[in-house]
Amino acid sequence: MGRYGPDAATAREEMLKVYPRKTQRKRGKQMLVNENPATPAEIGANSRTVPGIITQRGCSYAGCKGVVIGPIYDILHITHGPIGCGWYSWLSRRNITKIRADGEVNFLQYSMSTDMQEDHIVFGGEKQLAAAIQEAYDEFHPKAISVYATCPVGLIGDDIHTVCRQMKEKLGINIFGFSCEGYKGVSQSAGHHIANNGVFKHMIGLDDSPVEAKYKINILGEYNIGGDAWEIDRVLKLCGIHIIGTLSGGVSYDEICNCHMADLNVVMCHRSINYMAEMMEEKFGIPWFKVNFIGLEGTKKSLRKIAQYFGDKELIDRVEEVIAAEMAEVRPVLDDIRTRTTGKTAALFVGGSRAHHYQDLFNDMDMQVIAAGYEFAHRDDYEGRDVLPHIKIDADSRNIEELVVTADETRFDAAKPEKKKALEESGFTFSDYEGMMRQMAKDTLVIDDISHHEMEKLIEMYHPDVIGSGIKDKYVIEKMGVPCKQLHSYDYGGPYAGFKGAANFYKDIDRMTSTKVWKLARAPWHEGGSAPAAEKEPATAGA
Ligand code: CFM
Fold it and tell me: Which of 6, 165, 314, 328 is 20 to 30 Å apart from 39, CA to CA?
């Protein structure tokens, strides 16, 4: 037994034990002990979930409509499919937004669907789609309409792109479609890529209006969950840095069409948007680097790196002033909370970037992350971007179009790559991402696409003080006597980004891990009431 439970290798064996041999082999590759954090081992990632295993993953449509494009607030988003897909993607992600100028509209509270019926499946649904676009246009007169294909649309072969093109000509507004059928990939990750391609083809670069600001950037891969983008914007504004577009959180169609006017792209969520960063660099010359505004260290480092990129003494000094002022506020909160959180443990299983980013916040609180994993990330998100050339392309990845992007003849700004090269020579890193495993402690557990069975075993063996996860397993975890912080939706909390966000997070985690209520959680079928592991031996917790 280690300090907190069995050693990671034993725990891994225990989790794998019940599976049939073939499943054991596959899951075994996706569950690693982080033996050499500096040179992470190869993890099995972005492969199909074994049927029958309860996964936390979503579908390609969710990644495209729900994650990347859905948050653009003044586009009308129409789901072409049976009503369920539209219904379940209706406001179920907390990518909040607000109107910032007179005359603006916010369509995010609506859910539009073609409500496909059996006869559309038999005879085709293209007419229905054209009618839905017309109806939506007549009702709302939006600047743009986007259409999302769901599974049956791909199966029956409706040509949504032709319908969109015809309606675009007829109505004179931008209308475009996404072939993001749920089955298009092994998870929502495929939908991210499809969405990136579509945003790049149909929006980026449409508006060349100059932007009057000294330091202009875009934040890529920030979706304003619980108001994160607003906190990042607040801090950057204090520094004098202007955000043209946040893709895609609290963002308008016009901002996206104009965001190629930026000097720099910084990437928050590498998984969902690294394609866009690369394509914008190829077409317009805009360099990118990875940032992380989750956690105090990450926030400070990211601000300093942006300032360093621009290289102006005035900006560099201003950033230091902002950091000092913000830290003076958050420091006492952290100091107080650390007296209660130090030495506590956490496990994080989230999406494709948060299981990594949030480790910084737990580190701030002096808590130990004993196990972590993504739902749908790729090897580069675990092991670092340098493994990209070694990732095997399988049939599932081949399903998704790779756009061939070349430099824009008139708008490629050659000064930017030159600046990038000069900075690189002085040790500045661009186009890089180190991945989760390098940052995790030696001999911790890394589990890709964790199953419910594995989660239960993990709790029985380690009984962490808190688990960061999502709605699909929140109540399973809590019934086992462990508090679960939803790191997708933040439950009802947030923002958690930046300085004020960090303070919010410390307070929420402190409350969740200090309350005695979890020790009272006792399932009625535990005769005689066996208390959870915090009080007794771990194995009684979920048995
Ligand atoms: Fe990126 Fe996200 Fe995430 Fe993601 Fe998501 Fe999300 Fe997530 Mo839920 S884009 S990969 S597909 S950071 S919705 S805002 S929380 S799984 S870790």
Answer: 6
